C-alpha cells in the first residue's frame, strides 16, 4: 500500500474547480431562481411592472393598467404567453407597437402558472402588487 496516500485529505481548489466544470458540462450553467422565472414568462419577479393572467388577456378590452405599465419610466418590453390565441393577444401587440415598446411571444414548454402577459423592466423595480 502507498504510504503517501492520505485518505482524509481535503480536496484542493483545483480538484473542486474540476468537479464544478464537469457539473456545468453535464447539467449546464446553474440558473438563478429558475422556478420563479417559469411562473413569470422567464423573467425575475422583481423586474415585473404589471401582470395579467391568461384569462385576463382573453377578455375583450385592454386593461388600462397595461397601458400605464408600458408608460412606466422603467418599462422596456412586454412578454406574452405563446399558448394564447392571436385573437386574444393581437390587441396587446398593437398597443405595444403604438407605444413603441418591444414585445416577445414566449413559447417555452417549461413555463408554469397562469401568467399570460407581463410588462417588464431591464432592472429591478420591486413593485409589491404586480397583479391587475
Biggest sheet record? 4 strands, mixed
CA-CA gap between termini = 71 Å
Q: Strand arrangement, largest sheet?
A: 1-4-2-3
Please count the beta strands (DSSP E, at least 2 residues each): 4
Broad shape: elongated
Provide tags for this entry:
single chain; about 130 residues; alpha+beta; 4-stranded mixed β-sheet
Summarize this structure briefly.
The protein is an alpha+beta fold.
Describe the structure.
The protein is of the alpha+beta class and 132 residues long. 35% of the residues lie in helices and 19% in strands. Strand 2, helix 5 and strand 3 form a beta-alpha-beta unit.
Topology:
Layout: H1 13-27, H2 34-39, E1 48-53, H3 54-57, H4 64-71, E2 75-81, H5 86-98, E3 102-106, E4 115-121
Parallel strand pairs: 2-3
Antiparallel strand pairs: 1-4, 2-4
Amino acid at each position: 500500500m502507498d504510504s503517501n496516500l492520505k485518505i482524509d485529505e481535503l480536496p484542493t481548489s483545483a480538484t473542486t474547480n474540476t468537479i464544478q466544470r464537469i457539473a456545468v458540462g453535464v447539467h449546464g450553467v446553474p440558473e438563478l431562481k429558475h422556478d420563479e422565472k417559469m411562473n413569470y414568462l422567464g423573467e425575475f419577479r422583481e423586474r415585473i411592472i404589471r401582470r395579467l393572467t391568461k384569462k385576463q388577456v382573453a377578455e375583450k378590452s385592454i386593461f388600462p393598467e397595461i397601458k400605464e405599465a408600458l408608460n412606466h419610466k422603467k418599462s422596456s418590453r412586454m412578454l406574452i404567453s405563446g399558448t394564447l390565441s392571436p385573437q386574444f393577444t393581437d390587441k396587446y401587440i398593437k398597443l405595444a407597437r403604438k407605444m413603441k415598446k418591444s414585445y416577445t411571444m414566449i413559447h417555452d414548454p417549461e413555463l408554469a402558472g397562469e401568467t399570460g402577459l407581463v410588462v417588464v423592466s431591464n432592472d429591478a423595480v420591486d413593485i409589491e402588487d404586480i397583479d391587475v
